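quick one before i forget lol
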Amino acid sequence: MDVTDVAPARQHPVGLAELARIPVRRWRESLAATVLVVLGALVYLFVLPASYTAVTAVVVRPVVTDPFSVPSGGADRAVNMTAESGIARSNDVIDKVAAITGRESSDVADALEVETPVGGQVMRFQYAGRSESEAVAGANGAAQAYLDLRRGLYENQRAGVLKSYDEAISVVTAQRTTTQRSLPSNQSTTNPSPRTSALLDQLRALNDQLATLAEQRSKVASADLSPGSVTSAAREPVPSSRDSAPLILVAAIFGGLLLGGLVAFVRETLDRRVRTSAEALAAVGAPLLGAVRRNRGGQPDEADLRYLVLALARWVDGPQAGPLVLLSAGADEGRERITAGIAAVLAADGHEVHLGVAAEGTDRMRPLLLDAQRRTPPVDRVAPKVPRPRPAPVSKPVSTPVAGAGGGSGPEDTVVIPAVRKPRPFPAADAANGAVYRSTTTDDRTEVIPVARPTEHSTGAADRREVRIGAGRVHLVGLDAAPGTGLTVLDAPPALHDERGVRAAREGRAVLVAARDRTRVAQLTRLTERLRAVGVEPFGLVLTGDGRG
C-alpha cells in the first residue's frame, strides 16, 4: 500500500499536553489579548470617572380595608411584582429622579435599576451616580417617587369608586323620597290597602339598599392606600467602582488569558503549523531522515547532522550519486543551515563537495561554512612514505701499517677505512614562499621535499569559492553549474516561489526541509503535490526545531 494513500486519512490526536502547548507556541496572540483586557480594566478603573452605587429597599404590599385583620392565604400573591417593576421604571419616576439629581432623563434611565426577587414582595432600587450624594439621592428619590406614584393611583381609584357609590346612593335616595311621597297620608296602619303595602315593601327594600351602599362605601373610604414602605434607605458611605480594583485586575488577567487561549486556538485552526513529526510525515508521505535540533546559538546540533548524513548513505555511497537538492516551502525554515551542515560533515569525512547556491544566497552560505571550518580545522592529507635512496659513502684512503705475513722486515701493508660526512641539520626554511623544507645534503647531492605549512585560508578570488573543512573541501558553485567530480549538494530557493530547485531535483534526489512550529501544513502539502506533479518523488524529510514531539 502506498504511504501517500493512508497519510491524509490519518488524524493526529490532540491531547492535554498539545492543548497546553498551543497557547504557549502562539504566546504573542495570548499576550496581546491579555494586555488588551488588562488595559481595558485599567482604563475603567483609573481613567473613567468612578461610579457610586446606592441601594434602597421597598416592601410592596396590597391595599387592605382592615390592616389589623389576619390576611388570607392569598394575600402575599395579591401584588403583581412584574407590573410593580414596570411602574417603578415609568417615565414619571425617572422624571422625578432627574429633577432631584439634575441629570438628563436618558442618563437616569441608564443609571437606575429595579430588582424584584422571584416569590417576594421586596423591591430594590439601585442607582449609580457620579458621587456619593447623588447616588443616595437618586436611590431614595426613586423609591419615594414610586411610592407616591402608586399611592396617587390608588387614591384615584378610590375616588372613582366612592363617586360611583355616591351616585348610586343619590339615585336610591331619590327613589325612596318618591316612594315616601306616594304613600297616602290617611291610610290605616292596621289594615293597609294593597297599594300601600306594595309601597311600604318598596320603601323597605330601598332602605336596605341604601344601608348596603353606605356600608360598602365606608369600607372603601376606610381602606389603607399605602402601597408599601421603605425598609432600608440608602445612606453614605456607598460602594464605588474602584473599591474592588484588585479583584477586577485579577479577573481581567484571567479573562485575558482565557480570551488569549481562545484566540490562539482559532489562529491554530485557521493557520495550522507542523507541530510533530507525525504531522509532517502525513503531509509529505516520505520517510523521516532525521530531526535536527538547534542549540542556544541557533546552530544545528552536530550529532544530529552526522546521523542525518548516515541516513543519506544510500545517496552518498550510490553508484550514481546525482545532486542532492534540499527544498523548503519558505526561506525561514532552516534549510540553509541544514545544507551547510551536510556539506561540512561530508567534507570533514574527506569528500569533495560541490555546494550549489543561488546567487543571492552565496553571502549567507559562506559565513556558515566558515563557522564549520572554525569548528573543524583543515587537516593535511598524509602522503604515503617513500623510502629515500641512501647516498653512497665517500671513502678516503687511510694508511695503517700492518705486519707482513712472513713476520720479517718487509714493506708495510695498508687498509682503507671509509669516512662518512654527517648531513646538515634540518629543517631549513625558505623565506620566499613560506614553505618548510626537509633536506639531507652531502657534498655531491641534495634532496628537497616540500611540506605544506598550515596557514590561514587565502582570501583570493578563487579561494573564496572553496572552503577547506577537515580532510575535504566544499566548493561553492552556482545553482545551474555543471556537476563536477565528487558529491553535489544544492541549496534551492523557496520552492513555492522559485522553480529552479524543483527543476534540479528532476535530475537528482529531493529532500524536503520543514521547521517545527513554523512551516504551515498547507504549504508543505502544496509543495509535495507540486513535486509529484512534475515527476519528483521526495527522497525524505528533515525536520528542524527544538526536538519536542
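fyi The longest strand covers residues 52-60.
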